[in-house]
Prior knowledge:
alpha/beta
Amino acid sequence: MEEIKYVDRVGTDCSKWDSMDARFGDNDLMALWVADMDFMAAECVRKAAREYADFGIYGYYKVPDAYYQNFIDWEEKYHHCHIEKQWLRFSPGVVSPINWYVNMKTKPGDGIIVLTPVYYPFLDAIRDNGRQLISCDLVRKDKVYHIDYADFEKKIVDNKVKLFILSSPHNPVGRVWKKEELEQLLAICRKHQVFVVADEIHHDLIMPGYEHTEILNIPGYTDMLVVLTAGSKTFNLAGCKNSFVILPDEKLRQEYDDFLAALRIRGGNAFGYVAVAAAFGGGRPWLEGVIDIIHKNAQYVEETLAEKLPEAVVSPLEGTYLQWVDLGAYVKPNETQELIQNKCRLAVDYGEWFGGERFGSFIRLNLATSPENIKEAVSRIVKNIG
């Protein structure tokens, strides 16, 4: 493992710590919201960025072969997933192509289904583009969330759903979907001609004891899906604005290329390519160190709340670095923000953002920070509820 260095980011113009006033009306909070890390990037990334910066010329840039090959090799080695260079396309993040596919594959008023609670830009993409949001709520059993396949299929049929946006691993509930779960979802979508947009941006952040299934490793569906991923969550490179759109199907690639040509989007920032190539080429020891910290932080939250607030429901963290906590036994949904922000002095993502008021007693905690921050945050929650 590489040594992981925590950085105090206050005053560095980072969104997480320096723009809380815009979101919460208060900048004097402990930031546990935006999904990026408080850890310095891997040395291999910093070295590559320094070398490019020191070169001193930042003109038009030819994408290096290592950018593609290092990612392809990574997918083969760590996910046993075969990817070819010709399948890969650029996007500045995974949220942009989600919106693009809403427009490519549906018309205003069409139904688009998601498994709620879910990453709220999914919901925004549907609403902002004038489509109908169809929510299929996950079912919680013994703290773990499961898919209601009957409800999923019924809502697809009843609402003539055209598109399914999948979060895998799931943000915010932290599930790493099993192969058989993905197979059932895909079979239902095939049956009813529903196109699938699979967001796998957290696919490297898997906790010990769990295994992520790349949706491309399920044969027979490449003509009806697109996979979105990036190095941004894996290696804390969100500011580099560089993501992969994976399209094994030739017709889908042409469709994507035609759509992007109309938008005049041809590629990204040189520093993003440099950083991503370096990260997938040499960042594994750093990632292992980060996962170790996240796993221990998750264990601390689970164990401490089980002892101090036993009726709080902490969903086991299987993947991502985002912990989903239900405080409904102690606080009313409309009082959650008052408790967490004004009493605990924490900035978190609130449950209602992920699907509505029915999730109002939930909070999502970002665990990709120092153990000291997590311990302090949990202490504040316990103190103000207990």
